[in-house]
Amino acid sequence: MPARVAEAIQAMIAERNLKAGDQLPSQRELTHMLHASRPSIREGISMLETLGIVSVEVGRGVYVSERGGGSPADRWRFSRDHSLREVYQFRAALEPAALALAAPRLSAGDIVAMRAGAEALLEAAQAGNAVGAAEQDTLFHDLIYQRCGNRIFREIQAQMRQAMQDSQWVPMVIIERVHDTASEHLMIVEALEAGDTAGACAALANHIRAAAARCDIRL
Fold this sequence. Notes:
Layout: H1 2-15, H2 27-34, H3 38-50, E1 54-57, E2 61-64, H4 84-102, H5 108-126, H6 130-146, H7 151-159, H8 161-169, H9 178-193, H10 197-214
Antiparallel strand pairs: 1-2
Helix pairs in contact: 1-3, 4-6, 4-10, 5-6, 5-9, 6-9, 9-10
């Protein structure tokens, strides 16, 4: 539901031709306009904020952001708990290991879905649809943990989900670079299609390092 809210607000910005600095309707108004709960509205706005589409000014409201400028890392919301570098380091160590466990458990249908998701991510990027791209990115990475067959890996991912998910979304502030994410996903899929688990894990590690580099972080 929050992603649906984020998509609806993204579409509203485009349809109303809102520019950077323009104010969006209040959260109360959005709940009625979008027939969504207040928590879903808040989460949708949080997603848009991470993607650099809106900015939230406490006590004033939500405004359309100026796209571009600065580092995507400037939008990292969890610095009080973890640095963005720490999260990328953690993911670079954990996710390839999860994929190594998941690869033998991935069905042919799973791999087809991963390819379709990577292609949908590319289409969203080409359309400038940051929310759609972020959704596909999340589905891709979630499937790895869902199929890894290890409850500890899944519990760690659940506990760190918001920070890990935001680390996937933050580089998408630079919408022109989102096609790089899609290309990196496709390299992982191609290795899986070839039965090359080691190659898929290496491609995933490279993808995480590349995402970090898009945030000016060198691992």
